[in-house]
Amino acid sequence: MIARAESVALVGMDGHRIDVEVSLAPGLPVFTIVGLPDPSIQEARERVRAAVQSSGEDWPLKRVTVNLSPAHLRKAGSGFDLAMALGLLAAAGRIAHERLREVCVLGELSLDGSVRRIRGVLPASIVASRAGARAVMVPVANAREAALVRGLDVFAVEHLQQAVRFLRGECELDGVPPAPPGSGSALDEPDLTDVRGNSTAKRVIEITAAGGHNVLMIGAPGGGKTMLARRLAGILPPMTEREAFEVTRIHSIAGLLSDDGGLVDRRPFRAPHHSGSTTGLVGGGSGMPHPGEASLAHRGVLFLDEFGEFRREVLQALRQPMEDGGITIVRSRWAVTYPARFQLVAASNPCACGHFGDSLRPCVCAPGRVMAYQERLTGPIVDRIDLQVEIPRLARGQLFAAPEGDSSATVAQRVAGAREVQRARFGESGAASNAEVRAADIERLCLPTAAARAVLERAIEGLALSARGAHRVMRVARTIADLGGEEQTGSDCVEEALGYRVLDARE
Amino acid sequence: MSVDGRADVRVARRRDAEFLDCLREIEPVPETLWVLGRDLRALGPCVAIVGARSPTPYGLEVARGLASDLASAGVCVVSGMARGIDAAAHEGALAARGATVAVLGSGVDVPYPAMNRPLYERIARNGTIVSEFAPGTRARKFHFPRRNRIIAALASAVVVVQAARRSGALGTAGLALDAGREVLAVPGDVRSELSVGPHALLRDGAKLCACAGDVLDGLHLELIRPAGQDPKRSCPQEAAVVRALAAGPARADQIAARAELDHPAAMRAIARLEIAGIVARGPGGVYRRREIGGA
Hints:
The complex is a heterodimer. Chain A has 20 helices and 18 strands. Chain A has helices at 39-42, 44-54, 81-91, 97-101, 121-130, 143-146, 160-167, 199-211, 225-235, 241-253, 278-282, 293-296, 312-316, 319-324, 367-375, 408-426, 442-446, 450-462, 467-483, 491-498; strands spanning 2-11, 14-25, 31-34, 63-69, 103-105, 108-109, 115-116, 135-139, 153-157, 215-218, 269-270, 283-284, 290-291, 301-304, 326-330, 335-339, 343-348, 387-390. Chain A has three domains: 2-167, Ribosomal Protein S5, domain 2, CATH 3.30.230.10; 196-395, P-loop containing nucleotide triphosphate hydrolases (Rossmann fold, 3-Layer(aba) Sandwich); 426-507, Helicase, Ruva Protein, domain 3. Chain A is an alpha/beta fold. In chain A, a hairpin with a 2-residue loop joins strand 1 and strand 2. By secondary structure, chain B is an alpha/beta fold. Chain B contains ten helices and twelve strands. Chain B has helices spanning 57-72, 85-95, 117-126, 143-154, 168-178, 196-203, 212-219, 236-246, 252-259, 263-275, and strands at 10-13, 32-37, 46-51, 76-79, 100-104, 128-131, 157-161, 182-186, 207-208, 250-251, 279-282, 286-289. A nine-stranded mixed sheet of chain B has the order 1-2-6-5-4-3-7-8-9, sandwiched between helices. A three-stranded antiparallel sheet of chain B has the order 10-12-11. Chain B is globular, with a radius of gyration of 20 Å. Chain B starts with 9 loop residues before the first strand and ends in a 6-residue tail after the last strand.
């Protein structure tokens, strides 16, 4: 007796439909799984056996063989448990084969038969839908994300027994209520007015958001670098539905979605610690490569505090995503690409003790060490950072001052306006924001006036600005012009941008 | 008389003409001095500027500005070439093309600290390097108090800019008092550890030093304003920024507040002044005037 259940094996963001074939044959009662399962799937045998027995069903005293086909694909994870159990019961004639063939089954089993949440239900449901499935059976905890896929019926089950009774037609399942739209309300988003003093930093954050730039913040601990970085995510324009869908898919694979959350509609803010590994930052790991922090920050903000403390090779790994907007992890059998288009906020102390340049406390670092510390703030990643801002420690009394400046909502409106202008200007050129304008296109796309060019040339002379530095200033100047609603980049924009230029420790 | 190693090193013994009389006013009187660079007799009035090795930008700024103003007024700036205030003092004097003397705790041919070698070379060319220790001697901890006594001897007045409670600069001030020299102190931020030394001196009766004029008054000299660039710029915003910086170095947001400009306007004016070489951006995003003498 042979039965088939359908499931999905994910490969990165995509996946393949998998047939879970179960055969019951006379012979000694053994349970084997074939079809390139990795060790994590072999463990499914114990879970499936216990769960079936816990559901009040007899374990068939037959030779049980499960084949996961196509057999050339390596499969991992616990998401096939439910499909195997249901396939087995169908093969034993306990549920109707036809009913089972109509749904794609995803879910892990617990020993007591309850169905547990798994990662990657959203991308798996998308794969199922594309492969022609009309319905998916998923754990209740994953129901909301599966329900995001249009035209797909979602059967949410809590227990194996419930799934069995449903397939026998003995009970109905509750429908999945749609996720409340905008579950991430703007109310609990930290606001820019909370940031006291430092109008320079606020202006820089606004420009950063408006032009899609990367930014370097330098300042002593406690100056509010993290606070500012968090607010950057809050003033970025809202994600389009497509962007939100992308982000939700990645977060689904990483298992970051909450039970009640539907679409992730707030831009992510990720702040990995500097002691993290390359794998943690860009993804990878044994078995199926998982997305790293850079991908989890896709369409949002990646905040690297203590930037100088990150190991060189870890930072090097960020080069590819910063150039291509994605990370490709190559393995012997497959290559997986996760999107990773984020805005980088790098923060650093000015020196090891944090007081270099402080007006009150002396820096206790040996002068050579200050240089060595700042030397670490160079390299290919810093070369992609357009703005630099110093964040001083708050003076006494500033901490509890009244809120000041524009609210996040006001700034966000200006940012959205500037982004709109950029979209219209770039059209098909491939750049999505000023930060992405290639060096060769700067003259054509940034539209500097003759006076602006003259200022930049004087700056190259007077401030020892490098060619690359001049390009970065021009991109930032273009964003300032966009915020001001100006057609051309004037000399005033270039002058202001010069104040935010990245100082190169090597010069 | 020349010495091996560096051909241009001279020796000034007690009987030599280059062994200035003021060197006899300290205890113990040095036996010999090794000298490199300009003749000690050509220095004119000398003022020592000493202070912390790890100063704040404020201290560096004041030391440099003071040295530059004094040097412009024809005063020779004496210090110990240590990092921090000492180095800033020499830098200021050199920038104003004035005279400066570095008194070392090592041989005159041994730049110490090593990171100040470029400064050492400049002083050797345009100023004077002096030491009580034979050429080739390496700096030792116990050399510095002896070195400080020579700084006190050479100078008519000692100005202390930033010194923590137990700073070598306070030692120099004490030795200067013993030798009958005038001691001045630059007040600092009352919240900073580095103000403890100068404030203690002020409490004990040292003269307050806020500008080069305070030093020159005591020496019966007059401040000569250098004929530098005119700080008045045609643009009112630039002028406002320059005025804002007269109160001391500041970050862009502070400048904007002082000059009552909106932030982008202040930033633009600062950039124009920076390109023109009138202001410079330092650590911590702090801007300062470049020609202090003209303000």
